[in-house]
Amino acid sequence: MNPGGIGSPVAQGAAGESEERQLAWAYLSRVVLGPCPALTALIDSVGVREAARAVRERSLPPILRAATERRRELDLAARDLETIRALGGRLVTPDCAEWPAWRMLGLAQLTPGRDPDGAVPLVFWVRGDRNLAELTERSLAVVGARCSTGYGDRVAGAVAGDLAVHGWTVVSGAAFGIDGMAHRAALAVGGATIAVLACGPDRPYPAQHDRLLARIAETGLVVSEYPPGTDARKHHFLARNRLIAALSDGVLVIEAGMRSGARNTVKWARRIGRPALAVPGSVDSAASAGCHRMIRDGEAVLVTCAQEVIAETTPLHLPLIAGADVPGARELRDEETRVLAVLPDTGGRWPHEICAATGLSPAEVRAALVALDLAGRAASGGGGWRRLETSRERHG
Amino acid sequence: MNPGGIGSPVAQGAAGESEERQLAWAYLSRVVLGPCPALTALIDSVGVREAARAVRERSLPPILRAATERRRELDLAARDLETIRALGGRLVTPDCAEWPAWRMLGLAQLTPGRDPDGAVPLVFWVRGDRNLAELTERSLAVVGARCSTGYGDRVAGAVAGDLAVHGWTVVSGAAFGIDGMAHRAALAVGGATIAVLACGPDRPYPAQHDRLLARIAETGLVVSEYPPGTDARKHHFLARNRLIAALSDGVLVIEAGMRSGARNTVKWARRIGRPALAVPGSVDSAASAGCHRMIRDGEAVLVTCAQEVIAETTPLHLPLIAGADVPGARELRDEETRVLAVLPDTGGRWPHEICAATGLSPAEVRAALVALDLAGRAASGGGGWRRLETSRERHG
Questions:
Q1: Residues of A with Cβ-Cβ distance to B283 under 8 angstroms
Q2: Which of B279, B283, B296 is closest, CB to CB, to A283?
Q3: Pick the CATH number of A334-394 from 1.10.10.10, 3.60.20.10, 3.40.190.10, 1.10.150.80
Q4: pTM, two decimal places
């Protein structure tokens, strides 16, 4: 029915295969509309094209059948890709070089049963020219109350501006109040900023931020896991918050009421091992009550300026993936072998040291560390990266 | 030379002996002018009259000779007692029923070598009718910046007033700014308040607080470890801060610059096991910078209102005295035996439960618990008081 859809005859060869995979990702993204750990697991196991075929043909285990039933016949993949490209955007999938694999490790370590909404997103629908992986190399989320006060706006502007000046990408949710101030402050100093939306990347939400979102897309990125045209629904915001946390080295909250969505973003940050920081304010201000509660309860560290934010945040540092499944031993790629060779058994080395020792680029080192981490061959802790004993080594 | 001085012929008998001891305490208080762990140890060992004689006659170990040399010939004891009595005050010594022994345990557990300024005070020179031990039964220190802002004054007034309304005595240092606001707020609601001075109790310091101090003495207490007429010196303020902490169940800081004396009071609170609390404010305000630093560094817990202060503070709860010397077994007094009989071996009982179980008054129970604690026969923990095994019991 849809000539560009999955299963249609398309041009063969690498380019054709690549486009076919894009269509499969786009199709699945619209079928599940958000995080779906069971689908992620299926794709990991059989590949994206086979997963798309299985969904389409309903040859699925019951749990996945329920999750995909409602929209499995809806294949707007070609149209969605056309829409995003017409906006100067693209679909970023795990096949792409700019896929922020590094950033997604935090979500990948969550237990699907315990954190059903915490899955790694299938894809990112992206507006803007910048490379998503590069732009999130040193990034901080700055979020907070929609109903911010003059004080909160002033602090958000000062801190986000200082962070951007120091080369940090400011990640936020494009909402009214603190979010909007944070984006604007980064733009004002010519810094990088990323808006993560709870609706399709083509939908200006809130509508009054239409121009702001266009400006963000010009110099930074507007990203979403939802395909073009998707409306923002309540549960999308909670799922979106996990991506704000995952795409950042830490989450800073500037003003939050007791029931603020920013507190949800902090919960995600803590769950995936990112520092959570909060700015205090007047004890009379309801807009600071959530910040005070988080600091008091030990959920967030009190910070008062960009320098303190940076001091609490270590870029390129990933938490140890506790209890991750160790896949069976596989042949290591050349870069991975070289990285593994320079990792200590105890203590740790930082990525820039590994670059120096191996002669590999930061991007190559990162890719190798991610692969080694997922393979259970390396782990990061407070002192950098170290190699892990494999079970074969352990038993002789 | 001084007819009422130490060693002068005075009326014999109990009243005479009591007055003689008061004169000895008053004499020694003026000789050392502040904390002197070596003198405290000497008094503990030989009694106050013998200690006074030894100081007067220079029959002392070198360390004490140096500490007492300068003023040992100055005996204004009778005059000082006359001065304080003319002010409607008195000298409170460890001989007195109102000596806050309970409160002094925190200082008593400090190691003299490590905390030379942390000694238990020799005496309290006191203005006001209230009983010092009773007035510090449920007490909170509220301290902060001299150069407070309108915000700090407002919060100090609200929180100290709420604490006083709930029956807590507000302890502070009578300084400009937060201290003054805290005292005034307690007075305004008819609550109890104690000013701890770094000068003699007859000296209005600061001079502009003359009337405030007079009002505090009318319904609460003005106390000092320095004899009448003593000027406030810089090191007196640091020593005074330990008494503010020791006389309170917790220390609340409302506004403090980075070098505020309030941070010193918090250090004492932490050293003697009292909770330290701080109120946040605008990150732009230098007057809140010290509070933010203490919260950030984990030295103080963030609180925003009196309810949170009370939640963090447990009255009548003393930390376990780690490593305290256990004096040799002595005969227990009747009240002590009765209290010991109702203490559990594990878990704990609270003082009010012990009152109910023994039929003793709160004052008797407290006195007995202090004595049992010092004798190593009882200890307090998170769940109240429990009995300790003696070494004889332990070994069969």
A1: 155, 279-281, 304-305
A2: B279
A3: 1.10.10.10
A4: 0.78
